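Sequence only, no structure available. Ideas?
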Amino acid sequence: MEITECVMTSQLTRENTETERSSIMGKLLENLGSLPLGFGGAAISGEGGGYGFGKISEDHAIGLLKEAKDRGVKLFDTAPIYGFGMSEQRIGKAFQKNRDEVFIVSKSGVTWHENKRVDMTNDPLVTQKMLEQSLRDLQTDYIDLYMIHWPDERVDIRRPMEVLSKAKDQGKIKHIGLCNTFEEDLDKAMEVDRIEAIQCQMNLFEPEVVERLFPYLNKHEISFMSWGTLDKGILTKRVDEKRTFDKDDCRSWAPWWKQMDNKPKFEKLKKIWPLIEEHGHSPVELAIG
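Reply:
I predicted one. Tokens follow.
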């Protein structure tokens, strides 16, 4: 079992000015109380259908979580869909005795039916239900940062935002964030309450968010978190065109992997890896640097 997507980072790319870098990085640290590096909880969910990266026992998962904390990681990101609740449950068990020493991020908006058919919805009633279940699974009275996982064109984002704003007033969540969206939804959401952070995919092969979103985030002092920082393992050098995955790894079936032609990425990286290693750096350092 390889942990390939445990890295989340708030770091900006080098194309940005030092002013933008300082502002957004500073707001993440100030507003969210986190280190610039976080632990992505999908990898310890243990079930490919729930976007896991292969089976992992509960003891192993909890051991990894505690090891990450011991090494200085404070932010742990999860969502109900990761392992159909298993990721949240494992994080809850790992930190139930020292909850105040970690910063937990979870999300609403991706749920599932009895047959584990995934449903993406921002219906306010579902948002409320998912929040309450997350609190139970995480064994906590509050979630540090609670985010809307994906946009839902059927539901005005202001409706679930009203649920989250009320939950914040009640102390159930400390901060509100959005994922995988852009200016229009951010503007609407902030009509209801303050958005402290946004999380989108960003890595060496997916840099578009920098130009499209960072000026807006800098203007409104909104923190940024990336997901997919290691590009599903490609940027670890452990995954190449010959790599196969078992059925419990979401990369064995997910359209975003099966239908993607990754060969150009692998060809580019074959030229880059020797240069990186020649200068004493690892592939992961390149990915998050």
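Residues 7-288 form a domain with the TIM Barrel fold (CATH 3.20.20.100).
Hope that gets you unstuck.
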